Amino acid sequence: MPSITRGCLATLTTIGALAGCGQSKPAASSPATGTADRWCTHVPRAANQAFERVAVSSQWFEVYRVEPGVFALVEANQFQEAISYLIVGSDRALLFDTGLGLVPIRPVVEELTPLPIQVLNSHTHYDHVGGNAEFEPVLAVDTPYTTANQAGFPHAELAGEVAAGSFCHGAPAGLDTAGFRTKAWRPAQLIADGDIIDLGGRRLEVIQVPGHTPDAVALLDRANGLLWTGDSYYDATIWLYVPETDLESYELSLEKLVALAPALKRLLPAHNTISADPAHLQLAREAIRSVRSGAVKGTEESGNRLVFGFGDFSILTSKPLLEGKKGDRTRGGSGLTTWP
Ligand SMILES: [Zn+2]
Fold it and tell me: How many angstroms separate the CA atoms of 276 and 238, rounded?
């Protein structure tokens, strides 16, 4: 079970005491203590509040209008601070990620658009597919890892995510915290690198960016200079330690995204803040290179992990990956599993 959040680590001093960012995720077995309060003081995040807040009936999702026809659905009350995006065209809309699955997301989406909705996931870690079962059709890339994850993730893996200390203001009403698991889902259509999703008046290019997971994708709206990065980049602690992560692939995928950066207006990441500077892609590429080459020294973390701080973001990886070990990706993975 990971012990730190995706909060910024610019001022990381000791594990479990992230001064400044004030973010420390309690372990699954921890009682609800004041630890949650520290990251909660940073939500709603000031960077998000710079955008127009959209009123919805949901008490769970914070909705922001990032660009015309682009809504961010932020789950700020749970430490992952997962962000799903609704991208609206003239004929249909795409929901890029479906969140944690703690609260139904479809009613919120239907308040924002009357158009038919397709779903695509930035990758199939648990915190991005939680509402997949609410939608038809779901688009997906064709990897054994994706197929394995379609069964949903069991409560045993997710218990820590719904522990009392994982929430700022308590678990959502009606959630069965003792039994929460993500539901199974099935893709209706396979997609691949280079495919275009035409929403009518808005074309989204699918860019496969394996690394964080084998099935990671970014979405490019070339006409508007927007790039949805999923978990391949966000301004916080980038989790790159689980067995399904591949650091070499991650570096190559960042190369692809860096090449796009000069034409981009903003990144729309999947955690914490709904906008990031495209110039950070270049910094992330340099960072992963320096981590992999051993040019920088990390700080030891629990579970054979190491964290490397780079200012606006950090990289959390693990010794087996740095040693070149490959996990069994056919087994799937929730994003929370650690090396044996
Ligand atoms: Zn994530």
Answer: 14
Contact yes or no for 312/269 (Cβ under 8 A): no
Residue 242 CA to ligand 1 center (angstroms) comes to 12
Q: How far does the centroid of ligand 1 lie from the alpha carbon of residue 77, in Å?
A: 15
In angstroms and rounded to an integer, the radius of gyration of the C-alpha atoms of the chain is: 18
* Domain membership flag for residue 340: no
Distance CA 1, CA 183 (A): 21
Q: What angle do CA 8, 94, 240 make, to 5 degrees?
A: 30
pTM reported for the whole predicted model: 0.92
159 Cα to the center of ligand 1, angstroms:
16
Tens-digit pLDDT profile for residues 114-153: 999 999 999 999 999 999 999 999 999 999 999 999 999 9
Say how many Å lie between the CA of residue 199 and the centre of ligand 1. Answer: 25
CA of 68 to the centre of ligand 1 (A): 25
Full domain range(s) for residue 283: 9-322
Residue 167 lies in a domain: yes
